[in-house]
């Protein structure tokens, strides 16, 4: 799989631009602020319906414009597929496959499989749990696009449930609720009239949450061996086999931490059991949720724990080790998707966005060797000399709103 052509209209800094690519490595070179990342961000958005840089769509549309268009031609198993996405902030996006409209944008998911590594990925190791949850969910959707619907359904139910809890919370705080002062205890336990539909939302949250949680647990299990291999490959002997106190090698491993495990029972990917446990946990937390006006139970509260040896990577890993871990997570994702594709023709596209400037010479060389097997690698950089010779394929200069192939 590779992207043969990318066209943008009013996306970020580009009024209009078209770039023809080929398989193998391509390097986009230009000073900072010229739009290199905007190009690969557009591909990432098309592949996942989300940006790795911003949480909302509005910044993706060029200032003064009402919409942005991303259009690509993807070569997949020798056949071309045209995918088009129209981004309209505040409204539903529209998508087309081979010029034909689809009913929902998420129907284009899976047309382009892509893995992006960018400087922002350091937050996977050092950042908040939301960063790691998003990493899991994005990879889950890349493997099985149907999880985009599961994710959207869970987020919709969570939003509705939180709104219900918040309304009741504010009514109690301001004294504008529909219960007498003597019924305050009933309100705290979820018996406020505004909360009479809470049981229905609990059922929906448990059902969608169980499906999402099971998918994450299954993903962690299959990803683990790829992560261990990728970390040793990218970190090198100096990090991957260094013996800390106690003589335990610094192997990278992950562990999914669910709030359901607080009762001491292990959490397994049994959807019926997970749904029942989520319902029980919601019932147990009802009083606290009403008191705080927020949902305190569910996959949105979980975390992916990253370990080096016996210690958590966050707070204990060195700067270099954090970079190696972040790289390993993305390379493990690439290797998993590539292995599950079964044939090289469907191997995902790999994007390295302004990465080499952040790495030392040894890591640059190891990374170049590891990604050389990808069917297509798109690299952005400010200085061409930062990119190892192994990835010096086609070269494009990016400046002044133009992209020009020079090699």
Overview of the molecule:
With 407 residues, the protein is an alpha/beta fold. The chain has a domain at 2-113 and 348-405: Rossmann fold (3-Layer(aba) Sandwich). It is 40% helix and 21% strand. The strands form 3 sheets. The protein has a 6-stranded antiparallel beta sheet, covered by helices on one side. The chain has a 6-stranded mixed beta sheet with strand order 8-12-13-3-14-15, with helices on both faces. A 3-stranded antiparallel beta sheet has the order 9-10-11, covered by helices on one side. Helix 4 (147-174) runs parallel beside helix 8 (271-292). The chain is globular and about 65 Å long. The two termini are 22 Å apart. The model is unreliable at 179-184, 186-190 and 240-248 (pLDDT under 50).
CATH architecture of the domain at 2-113 and 348-405: 3-Layer(aba) Sandwich
Q: CATH topology of the domain at 2-113 and 348-405, what is it called?
A: Rossmann fold
Radius of gyration: 23 Å
What is the strand content? 15-25%
In round numbers, the mean pLDDT is 89
Largest sheet: 6 strands, antiparallel
* Secondary-structure content class: alpha/beta
Morphology call: globular
Please identify which CATH superfamily of the domain at 2-113 and 348-405 we are dealing with. Answer: P-loop containing nucleotide triphosphate hydrolases
Strand runs, count: 15
What is the helix tally?
10
Report helical residue fraction: 40-55%
Question: Which segments are poorly predicted (pLDDT under 50) over 5 or more consecutive residues?
Answer: 179-184, 186-190, 240-248
Q: What is the CATH C level class of the domain at 2-113 and 348-405, in words? A: Alpha Beta
In which order are the strands of the major sheet placed?
2-1-4-5-6-7
SSE ordering: EEEHEEEEEHHHHHHEHEEHEHEEE
Distance between the termini: 22 Å
